[in-house]
Amino acid sequence: MTPETRLPVAIDAMGGDKAPAEIVAGAIRARDELGVPIVLVGRPDELGDVAGLPVIAASEVIAMDADPGKSVRTMKDSSLVRAAEAVRDGKACAMVSAGNTGATMASALLRMKRLPGVYRPAIATPIPCPGADVPTVLLDAGANAECSPEWLVQFAQMGAVYARHRYGIDQPRVGLLSIGEEPTKGSPLVKETHQLLAEGSWAEASGGTFVGNVEGRDIMSPDVDVVVTDGFTGNVVLKTLEGGMKALVKAILGAFDADDATRAAGDVLFPALLPLYAQLDPDNTGGALLLGLNGPCIISHGSSSATAVVNAVKVAVELVDADLVGAIGRTIRPEPAE
Amino acid sequence: MTPETRLPVAIDAMGGDKAPAEIVAGAIRARDELGVPIVLVGRPDELGDVAGLPVIAASEVIAMDADPGKSVRTMKDSSLVRAAEAVRDGKACAMVSAGNTGATMASALLRMKRLPGVYRPAIATPIPCPGADVPTVLLDAGANAECSPEWLVQFAQMGAVYARHRYGIDQPRVGLLSIGEEPTKGSPLVKETHQLLAEGSWAEASGGTFVGNVEGRDIMSPDVDVVVTDGFTGNVVLKTLEGGMKALVKAILGAFDADDATRAAGDVLFPALLPLYAQLDPDNTGGALLLGLNGPCIISHGSSSATAVVNAVKVAVELVDADLVGAIGRTIRPEPAE
């Protein structure tokens, strides 16, 4: 698709801790730097100078801590619901929000709907692997606190398709998160899912390959491309890593600041550490993706800066051009009864 | 208890990746440096020079990757089973093993038995918090892949007693690991457990206080003292942090090694980073503790060095002197029917 014929990316201008200022700034930069058409969604009189970007007016804003289901049901003129409708109605090719994650999911699910045959959408989050070119894809990172084995098998399929299309991995290695390598280890959910994944018929259409159970320590390693788990465990893992990395980086920076000698040494080291810092910065990952819906939905970090918005738009366009939604639809074939 | 009247600590000389050499070296150091009586358990002719330490002969060794339940049932003359029997029979005050974690648990459970009223033992693992004086206690870190809400309430009680006795925290703040602060967030297990913990009657005897749901990012923070979760989630969290920290430290050391200038700067920074490195080194935490049994059982990291063994013995003696087992027994009162 050429830039001329591309539909705009719909950006929820009201969602995120730094909305609307940083979001609007990111949207303008995305248009100017990437040449991607953008449409903002939100309250026109609160957006400031939008530098000529088109705006879909939405009078309501779903707060970051609002109840997702209730908000989406009752706030039909919210920026999130209107952004999802823009994708549904063919007015945008993808949506991006740094707002309330649950409400983003609910809006996208209710307005875009699931792809035929998809049991549940899942949040796929890239986890940076220091030293590796591509991150590990973790899913479900929080959409479904409770899962069935059959859902996890679909997550494996969707994750494999995503790793192929977004990261160009020919045959993604898919691992099942557990507490030991042996198929007999783990919760009943994991044991049943292991059997289904080991059976292998899921892999053909998705291009993935099952490498067995993996453990928490494998997530940030280059030994696995896709890690499948339920949304409770996945969300705990994601936040544990965020917290752990932040605590460690803070402690290291504290040591750098011990005295004049260490500060001078830190100045020397800083350039060498920048690539690592950039790799770990959530603003650079382009956000998580909601997989399994009939349209791309990018969920950015709540604290997203303008740079995070630019990167999210970049990912959105890449996935639209690669037709990720179509590829997932062809992989998850509808069941005969449907 | 004075050193003269203290029972020895039983050390499984055959357990761990570096057994028996490092384990025996650590046992000798523990006696010499801490003045603690030690009894080794294992194959006498494989232990080398034990520097006069007494040995309980055990002819069998449970491999690191052996099936725990089966091994413990069939290998009655294994070093793990004999070490647990030494505690049961009043010949040792505590056991320490760096061997097969599942088999260590099974040996301790089958030979020492649970304290009256305890539903299930739990593994309590200290998670270092950079910048804080004491770690966060995470439990269950892997003993029970499936749990009931009532078990988790007992874990909260045992964790609070442990934090008070081991870390001297007057009123430990106990959090329930979930995927959001709201009581309505999480799995059914978490929601039911939240209600029971919020009700508060559990707290009185244990001295703890419920601070509500916590998230993964809170574990390495100084905002909570005890984090309660099921053994599947806890084990995933523990290994995720281990892997994440290792990957990050490796990447940072790689940046230090970029060129002559960064190497020189690294030499300046190294002393300032040493305390952090020491805090994160699992050899220094003294290992995890199996709580809820009628005797102390310390589970050391599989890769334990002699230093790890010394620290594990130190923890064992502290907990014996503080009568942790008695304190847990008095907290978990037997149910009337028992």
Structural notes for this entry:
The structure is a homodimer of 338-residue chains. By secondary structure, chain A is an alpha/beta fold. Chain A has two domains: 1-118 and 292-338, Isopropylmalate Dehydrogenase (3-Layer(aba) Sandwich), CATH 3.40.718.10; 119-284, 3-Layer(aba) Sandwich (Isopropylmalate Dehydrogenase). Chain A is 45% helix and 14% strand. Chain A has eleven helices and eleven strands. The longest helix of chain A has 26 residues, at 231-256. The first copy, chain A, starts with 8 loop residues before the first strand and ends in a 7-residue tail after the last helix. In chain A, 57% of the residues are buried. The model of chain A has no long low-confidence stretch (mean pLDDT 93). Chains A and B meet through α8 and α9 of A and α8 and α9 of B.
How many whole angstroms does the radius of gyration of chain A measure?
20 Å
Low-confidence stretches of chain A at least 5 residues in length (pLDDT < 50)? none
- The percent range for strand residues of chain A is 5-15%
SSE pattern of chain A, N- to C-terminal: EHEEHHEHEEHEHHEEHHEEHH
So what's the overall shape of chain A?
Answer: globular
What is the highest CATH level, the class of the largest domain in chain A?
A: Alpha Beta
Counting DSSP H or I runs of 4 or more residues, the number of helices of chain A is: 11
